[in-house]
């Protein structure tokens, strides 16, 4: 059975990649990951300086995450059509500009808007970065590249809060955003040395992109505002229903689109869908603990911020190691499916274990479940993207 690719690239995907390809993409990944996990540390300073609190202040983090989630699929589709390097470069520039505007923002409204801009840019960096690696490397080299991408994402998530805290202590919250801006611009400059490639030609599906972003925005608004307004509040119900309608129209439109944002054939591919759902499952199980457990340990168990932060290293440290371990196992012949089943099992067991916590539990009490979740998430980082990309990029031909 021959393996072919539908690639119509500006440069052959088999050509030797630029020496800067992997370093630039990995730097972008770690910077975006740090911004995801570290921004919350700046919220007290932002609120005090801009006189903001409540929902308006929460959107500093929520707006970024919303834009990141909504734009990832759109950015991936754009990268295939207009060029992966071009999308990565523009996204890194948008990401940096958003941070710069945040650093000089005079009001919470401008801050929220600039954070949304940064989130959209971060989505493009991640999506186009993964596409660049898939186009530039093959076989074991591709597995190693995606394992390194997973490791760098883990590094960013793990050290984001700590480094952000140090930057804020040294330069203030505005200064920390300036540092992110400078690093982002350096990555933008490096991206100009990456070879260009694209997977297809044709017009982008803008109606589909708008519907997809609209659906996720409405869902996110409902989820974020429901705790304050109530789940039965008219605005919450209306936005949730609107999100369902937009999603249904989006799904129907993708079947008729000549250049769909989300190829229906990928959804029909059980392997691709399975790897994507595996990524979603492990990410929810990991990030939920990363965001909420430190607060629980301080409020319910009476730990100090330093102690709760140290405890979280049990969760994040394995993510720095296990992606490469998982990639090595797969390269040596261990079925990727067995590795991901083990990863899902560890994340599930760890979260169920955490459900038994009480206020008497200390760091020793959470060590087991945190290690299980961290190892499971790290193994997922190491293989899911590469396996899904392989199914997306290559198809059997007679």
Which structural class fits the helix and strand makeup? mainly alpha
Shape summary: globular
The secondary-structure element order is EHHHHHHHHHHHHHHE
Distance between the termini: 7 Å
Major sheet characteristics:
2 strands, antiparallel
For the CA atoms, what is the radius of gyration? 21 Å
| Order of strands across the main sheet | 1-2
How many individual β-strands? 2
For the record, what CATH class of the largest domain applies?
Answer: Mainly Alpha
Q: Looking at CATH, which topology of the largest domain would you report? A: Growth Hormone, Chain: A
Strand content: under 5%
What is the tally of helical segments? 14
| Helix share, percent | over 70%
Q: How many structural domains are formed by the residues? A: 2
Question: Could you tell me the mean pLDDT?
Answer: 80
Instruction: Give the name of the CATH architecture of the largest domain.
Output: Up-down Bundle
CATH homologous superfamily caption of the largest domain: MFS general substrate transporter like domains
Weakly predicted, low-confidence segments? 1-13, 393-398
Short description:
By secondary structure, this protein is mainly alpha-helical.
Task: Give an overview in words.
The chain has 398 residues and is mostly helical. It has 2 domains: 1-205 and 258-262, Up-down Bundle (Growth Hormone, Chain: A), CATH 1.20.1250.20; 263-398, no CATH class. It is 78% helix and 2% strand. It has 14 helices and 2 strands, in the order E-H-H-H-H-H-H-H-H-H-H-H-H-H-H-E. It has a two-stranded antiparallel ribbon with strand order 1-2. The chain is globular.
């Amino acid at each position: 059975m021959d393996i072919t690719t539908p690639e119509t690239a500006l440069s052959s995907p088999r050509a030797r990649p630029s020496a800067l390809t992997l370093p630039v993409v990995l730097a972008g990944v770690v910077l975006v990951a740090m911004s995801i996990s570290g921004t919350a540390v700046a919220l007290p300073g932002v609120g005090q300086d801009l006189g903001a609190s409540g929902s308006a202040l929460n959107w500093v983090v929520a707006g970024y995450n919303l834009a990141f989630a909504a734009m990832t699929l759109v950015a991936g589709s754009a990268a295939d059509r207009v060029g992966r390097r071009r999308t990565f470069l523009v996204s890194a520039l948008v990401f940096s500009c958003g941070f710069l505007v945040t650093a000089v923002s005079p009001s919470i409204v401008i801050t929220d808007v600039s954070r949304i801009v940064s989130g959209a840019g971060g989505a493009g960096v991640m999506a186009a970065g993964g596409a660049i690696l898939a186009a530039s490397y093959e076989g074991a080299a591709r597995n190693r590249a995606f394992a390194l991408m997973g490791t760098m994402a883990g590094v960013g998530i793990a050290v984001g809060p700590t480094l952000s805290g140090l930057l804020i202590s040294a330069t203030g919250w505005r200064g920390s955003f300036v540092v992110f801006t400078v690093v982002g611009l350096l990555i933008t400059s490096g991206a100009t040395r990456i070879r260009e490639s694209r997977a297809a030609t044709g017009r982008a599906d803008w109606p589909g992109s708008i519907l997809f972003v609209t659906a996720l925005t409405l869902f996110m608004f409902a989820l974020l505002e429901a705790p304050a307004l109530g789940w039965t509040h008219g605005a919450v119900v209306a936005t949730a229903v609107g999100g369902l309608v937009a999603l249904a129209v989006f799904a129907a439109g993708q079947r008729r689109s000549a250049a769909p944002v989300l190829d229906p054939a990928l959804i029909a591919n059980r392997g691709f869908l399975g790897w994507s759902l595996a990524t979603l499952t492990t990410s929810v199980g990991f990030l939920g603990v990363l965001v909420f457990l430190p607060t629980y340990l301080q409020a319910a168990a009476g730990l100090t911020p330093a102690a709760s932060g140290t405890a979280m290293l049990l969760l994040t440290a394995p993510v720095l190691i296990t992606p490469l371990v998982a990639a090595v196992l797969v390269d040596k012949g261990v079925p990727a499916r067995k590795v991901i089943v083990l990863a899902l099992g560890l994340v599930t067991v760890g979260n169920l274990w955490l459900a038994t916590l009480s206020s008497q539990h200390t760091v020793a009490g959470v060590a087991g479940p945190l290690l299980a979740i961290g190892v499971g998430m790290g193994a997922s980082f190491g293989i899911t993207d590469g396996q899904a990309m392989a199914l997306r990029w290559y198809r059997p031909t007679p």
